[in-house]
Amino acid sequence: MTSRSIRPEGRADRSVLSAATIIRERALADLHGLPATAEVVHRIAEEIHACWPQASRFKCFRLAQGWTVEEAIERFHGMCDREGVKRRGLTERSWREWEAGARPDREYTDLLCRLFETGPVQLGFARDYTPEHLRARSAPQPDPITLAADEAGAHAEQAETSELGAGALERLRAEVVWVGRRYVWESPLPLFVEMRALQERTRKALDRRVHPGQASELYFLTGALCGLMANVSMDLGRRIPADTLARAAWTYGRVAGHPSLMGWARGMQSQVALWDDRYHDALGYAEDGLEHLSAGAGGVRLHMLRARACAMLSRRTDALESLRRAEDARAAGEGDELHDEMAGEFAFLPAKQHYYASVTRLHLGDSAKAIEEGLTALDLYARDDAQNRSYGCEAMARAHLVIAHLLEDDPGGADQAVAPLLALPPERRISSLAATLDDGRSMLAAHPGGERTARQIESFCAVGLPQAAPALTEGNRR
Question: Quick check: is 465 in a domain?
Answer without folding.
Answer: no
